[in-house]
Amino acid sequence: MKVLMVNKFLYPNGGSETYVFKSGEELMKMGHEVQYFGMEHERRIVGNRAESYTSNMDFHTGKLQKLLYPFKIIYSMEARKKLRKVLEDFEPDAVHLNNFNFQLTPSVIYEIRAFDKKRKKKTALIYTAHDYQWVCPNHMLRIPANGKLCMRCVNGSYGNCAKYNCIHNSKIKSILGTIEGTLYKKLKTYRHIDKIVCPSEFMNRILSNNPLLKEKTVTLHNFIEKSSGIHINSDEKKDYILYFGRYAEEKGIRTLLEVCEELEELPFVFAGNGPLEEMVNKVKNIENKGFLSGEELKKIIREARFVLFPSEWYENCPFSVMESQMYGTPVLGADIGGTPELIKEYVTGELFESGNKEALKAAIKKLWDDRETCRKYAKGCRDITFDTTKEYCRKLVDIYRLN
């Protein structure tokens, strides 16, 4: 089978790119032919035989060519023309869309269906929803100005994005987001998609609010490689509580720091970076390791008594929660978004009310004081099962073939 992976970034940039590259690599191991389409960039690591890519656009850093970009991020003729070359050269059986809004735009959907008419053969068109973009223009279901969770646009009322300056707290960008969402709602563009892969049941429920998407969604939790043989004995766990990830408001860091200060007798280790790093460094009982990766990160996860995941936004299918349990470390996680689907409560960890400082504080203290329960949860993690990349990609191929 020929599969064309479409993603705006074709270089390592985040979780969605990891998903694209790893699933593409596994599909090739399974004997399928895989090519990629997205933006050209000096760090690009994958591509297509036609060597056709769109010019690089960075919507997030403010480097907008104000007279041209507003049109390009809503509908891109360049993306259509560049994609056309790839389609004509590769003739894929399936096109797997990932993150494409703004930089590539939904214009690529129209090009794929136009190509189908030309060659008189239907291409399976699949989309993996890495965020809430199709029902929330700022993709986070969260108002950045006040940090409050928000469902106002889920029913298609995209004018709320402009009203609350939801995209980077910018009126201009938020108006563009409103226009984009409203336009493609009226055009019913997403009806052309055959299947929408949702990495959580929560995501599935949110997207199903849109009648055009409701019958197209399927839930597949993200993949992670099994970690047999790397669990350490629960008696060898070190005496610290770990948070790893981004030091940002939506991750619940501000609330967590207040709790850490009040639990001054407990040892916390943080691994990561982000805008709130200065605040992290001011808390005396936190050892900030900074950004870690590879074996260094694995070791610090494996040896922690338990991991904290205090997110205050609707996380989709957080890899860090899966990773912690796969390394034999229990997770104390916020009861929000897709997180509760990943933690077997009272088997591999526990949940607390997201954003509730006192609930988080009590849960940390209780778990820390009960070493035997921590041991039990660590043992429970040994039996945790998530799809490996191979298992996940087999399911992907089945979805491709159904369409």
> Biggest sheet, strands in spatial order?
2-1-3-4-7-8
Overall structural class, as computed from helix and strand content, comes to alpha/beta
Q: How many domains, as an integer?
A: 2
Which shape, going by the Cα principal axes? globular
For the secondary structure, the number of strands is 14
Spatial separation of the terminal alpha carbons? 13 Å
Whole-number radius of gyration? 22 Å
Mean pLDDT: 92
Helix content: 25-40%
Enumerate the spans where pLDDT stays under 50 for 5 or more consecutive residues.
none
Major sheet characteristics: 6 strands, parallel
CATH architecture of the largest domain: 3-Layer(aba) Sandwich
Helices and strands, in N-to-C order? EHEHHEHEEEHHEHEEHEHEHEHEEHHH
- Percent of sequence in beta strands: 5-15%
**What is CATH's topology name of the largest domain?**
Rossmann fold
**How many helix segments?**
14
Q: Could you name the CATH homologous superfamily of the largest domain?
A: Glycogen Phosphorylase B
CATH class of the largest domain: Alpha Beta
Tell me what the structure shows.
There is one protein chain. This protein has 403 residues and is α/β, with parallel strands linked by helices. The chain folds into two domains: 2-128 and 188-223 and 389-401, Rossmann fold (3-Layer(aba) Sandwich); 234-381, Rossmann fold (3-Layer(aba) Sandwich). The chain is built from 14 helices and 14 strands. It has helices at residues 15-29, 69-72, 77-90, 107-119, 159-163, 171-186, 201-207, 253-262, 277-281, 294-303, 319-326, 357-369, 371-381, 389-401; strands at residues 2-6, 33-37, 94-97, 124-128, 142-143, 148-149, 195-198, 217-219, 241-246, 268-273, 286-288, 306-309, 331-334, 349-352.
